[in-house]
Amino acid sequence: MSKNLTTRSEDYSKWYNELVVKADLAENSGVRGCMVIKPYGYAIWEKMQAELDRMFKETGHSNAYFPLFVPKSMFEAEEKNAEGFAKECAIVTHYRLKNDPDKPGKLMVDPNAKLEEELIVRPTSEAIIWSTYKGWVQSYRDLPLLINQWANVVRWEMRTRLFLRTAEFLWQEGHTAHATKSEAIEESEKMMNVYADFAQNFMAMPVIKGFKTETERFAGAEETYCIEALMQDGKALQAGTSHFLGQNFAKAFDVKFANAEGKQEHVWGTSWGVSTRLMGALVMTHSDDNGLVLPPNLAPIQVVIVPIFKTDEEFDKISKVVKELATQFKKINISVKYDDRTTQKPGFKFAEWELKGVPVRIAVGPKDIENGTFEVARRDTLTKQVIAKEGIVNYINDLLETIQNELFKKALDYRTNNITEVNSFEEFKTILENKGGFISAHWDGSAETEEKIKDLTKATIRCIPLNRVEEEGICVFSGAKSVGRVLFAKAY
Q1: Cα distance between residue 334 and residue 386, in whole Å
Q2: What residues contact residue 54 under an 8 Å CB cut-off, 6+ apart?
Q3: Distance between the two ends of the chain, CA-based, in angstroms?
Q4: Residue 127: what are its φ and ψ, rounded to 5°?
Q5: Contact between residue 17 and residue 161 where contact means Cβ atoms under 8 Å apart
Q6: What are the tens digits of pLDDT across the range 326-352?
Q7: Strands 256-258 and 264-266, how do they pair?
Q8: Which residues of 327-337 are buried (b: 16+ CB within 10 A; e: fewer)?
């Protein structure tokens, strides 16, 4: 199997696009800006979904589902949110087609089937959900309301890229209502931490926890918490956000509750989400010029076994041994595939599974059967070892854990080496153009300075780190006083 991948150093963007397609993760569809997620890509998303869903339920959340369509008047109720998403909205105006009398065999919009009120195809679900919550919340006994939904949303992006930015994408969105401000803030921070735990423990992707500047905040939020990751090309990627909404949506949709004293109050809200953009993050964090590198905790296939044989007799002997081995793996929840296709040669299979990022490959030939050994290859390091049959199951179990940990450490080392402190704008520009990565710099806190830096360099403030040291300094751009450093980067 010929991979013919563009190398990362040659053209990182082209490498990414080719890899997503050639590794059978996704492809462009017949609808501009939309993608088809293929079975192998969807299998990875399902593993992400399963782990996140478990984590949400462990923190007390329940799943529900809300409509795809939002009446325009409802969408407009929270002004900042409506304004923030207005340019990306797809709108339904009619509900029927009819035969075009001037063009036989063609259809046209029926002008008599105009909707009384236009419908927005949800770019996010705050409006429809908060309008529903009005009927669900009457008393403090109904709170907190902790709801998540797995859904698709539509944002009419002009420049699209598989997984990273598409007109329609899959995600989850949590929407919660609370009796007090402190509870809602605690929920926002908790969900940011859930996302960070998932990114680090399952994706093997280190993230920086922080909050957004007012300019970068979610439309309609009082505060936006985020996790920011760094890709191999030195660009940042926002991997998840959690928003403290204050009482903005509760007031817009009149969601009130009677407190313990019987007094009416507006509830406090949060919303939080991650999307199939995480698939792009996974690809770009670990993969190499040979294809995908998947962390074992999210790999649909953790171990692939490839037989090497010449005769049917050899194949039967190998298959018998492999089936016994596969049974032992399955008993300890290691996902295994026996690639027993007779239509492809071992070399083709090796290349294919390497491209698809399967963490461990085991090759078994007649000599291995005689010697009671297996050849074990690691995808992350492309190294091989011969392992005795007796200890193979425990060895592979430990190896998968080792690979998971080492992938995280490699990504963490890369990020650590690519956070650069600068103290002047000249230094800022030099690092941004020649090294990339996160730039730690003093900022005066003004939206005007933030916008000017963005216009001049295309770098944005990715986050104000939660653990930043409060220190007096001088803004790298304006020379005005600063109370601490923030992280800038070019981003996806």
Answers
A1: 20
A2: none
A3: 31
A4: -60, -50
A5: yes
A6: 999 999 999 999 999 999 999 999 999
A7: antiparallel
A8: eebeeeebbbe
d(CA 485, CA 492): 22
Among 75, 97, 100, 217, which residue's Cα sits nearest to residue 153?
75
What Å distances lie between residue 472 and 265, 370, 441, 444, 468, CA to CA? 40, 71, 12, 10, 12
Strand duo 485-489 + 438-442: pairing? antiparallel
Local structure of residue 335 (DSSP, 8 states): -
Cβ contacts of 290 within 8 Å, gap of 6 or more: 3, 5, 354, 355, 382
Distance CA 1, CA 355 (A): 10
Packing angle of the helix pair 392-417, 312-331 (nearest 10 deg):
70
How much of the chain is in helix, strand and coil states, percent to nearest 5? 35, 30, 35
Count CB neighbours of 484 within 10 A: 16
pLDDT digit string (tens) for 401-456?
Answer: 999 999 999 999 999 999 999 999 999 999 999 999 999 999 999 999 999 999 99
Residue 258 to residues 139, 179, 268, 452, Cα–Cα distance (Å): 5, 10, 13, 47
Distance CA 487, CA 210 (A): 10
**Alpha helical stretches, state H, 229-337:** 248-252, 277-286, 312-331
Would you state the structure tokens that stand for residue 136, as one six-digit string?
Answer: 């669900």
What is the rounded CA–CA span in Å between residue 432 and residue 420?
10
DSSP state of 291: B
Joined together, the tokens standing for residue 217 give: 């905040």
How remote is the C-alpha of 361 from its chain's centroid? Answer: 27
Task: Give pLDDT tens digits for 62-104.
Answer: 999 999 999 999 999 999 999 999 999 999 999 999 999 999 9
Kindly report the pTM of this predicted structure. Answer: 0.96
Among candidate residues 439, 410, 491, 419, the one with its CA nearest the CA of residue 164: 491
